[in-house]
Write a structure and sequence with these properties.
By secondary structure, the protein is an alpha+beta fold. The protein contains 6 helices and 7 strands. Helices cover 53% and strands 23% of the residues. Strands 2-4-5-7-6 form a 5-stranded mixed β-sheet. A two-stranded antiparallel ribbon has the order 1-3.
C-alpha cells in the first residue's frame, strides 16, 4: 500500500512537470534574456515575468498535490492561486482587482474542475499579457453551481477560444465569453 501511494505521488509529480513545461521554458528563456542585458529596466521587467510564470507553477502544483479522499478540492485553493497570480500581474503594471470568496460559504469542486479552471484562467491571462490593461476577477460560490469565476480583461478583444471551450466541457465546466468595446468578459462555471 505504501509503495502504491509513492507511485501515485510520483505520477502526480510527473504530470506537474509535463503540464508546466511551457512555463518552465518561458522562465529559462527570460533568465537568459535578463542575464544577457545590462539594461536595468529590461532586467527588472523580465524578473517580474519570471515571478508570474513561477507563481503559476507553484500554485498549479499546490492544486495537484491537494490531499482529498474524495478527489474534491476546496475552492479556497483556486482563490489563493488566482489571487497570487494577480499580485504578479499588478507588479507588471497591469491593474488588478479581486473580489469574492472571503465571506462566501465553503464550496468544493472536483480536482479535475479546479485544475481546468486554473489552467484556463492562466491561458486567457498569459495570452493577453502584452495588451491587457487590467484583469478584474470575481469568484462566486453557490450551492447550485459550485463556483463561478468571472474574469474581465480590460483592453483585450478576445473572442471565445473554441478549443478551450471544448476542453473545459470535458471537465464539466461551462465557459462563456462576451466582448464589448475593448473588454472581454469570461465566465467559468463548475458544478460542485
Amino acid at each position: 500500500e505504501k509503495r502504491s501511494a509513492i507511485e501515485k505521488r510520483n505520477d502526480i509529480y510527473d504530470e506537474i512537470i509535463r503540464n508546466t513545461h511551457e512555463q518552465a521554458g518561458q522562465i529559462s528563456r527570460l533568465v537568459a534574456e535578463a542575464t544577457a542585458t545590462e539594461d536595468v529596466e529590461v532586467k527588472a521587467h523580465k524578473l517580474k515575468l519570471i515571478s508570474f510564470y513561477a507563481s503559476f507553477i507553484k500554485r498549479y502544483a499546490n492544486i495537484m498535490l491537494y490531499e482529498s479522499p474524495d478527489e474534491k478540492i476546496n475552492t479556497v485553493e483556486v482563490r489563493l492561486a488566482i489571487s497570487e497570480n494577480l499580485i504578479y500581474l499588478d507588479n507588471l503594471g497591469i491593474a488588478v482587482e479581486f473580489a469574492g470568496g472571503k465571506n462566501e460559504p465553503e464550496a468544493y469542486i472536483s480536482r479535475k474542475a479546479a485544475i481546468a479552471i486554473y489552467e484556463a484562467f492562466y491561458k486567457v491571462v498569459s495570452e493577453n499579457l502584452g495588451s491587457m490593461r487590467g484583469c478584474y476577477v470575481r469568484i462566486v460560490h453557490d450551492d447550485e453551481s459550485g463556483i463561478q469565476l468571472r474574469v474581465n480583461l480590460d483592453g483585450v478583444c478576445a473572442p471565445a477560444d473554441e478549443k478551450l471551450v471544448r476542453a473545459l466541457e470535458k471537465a464539466d465546466i461551462i465557459m462563456s465569453t462576451f466582448v464589448e468595446d475593448a473588454d472581454t468578459f469570461i465566465r467559468f462555471t463548475a458544478r460542485g
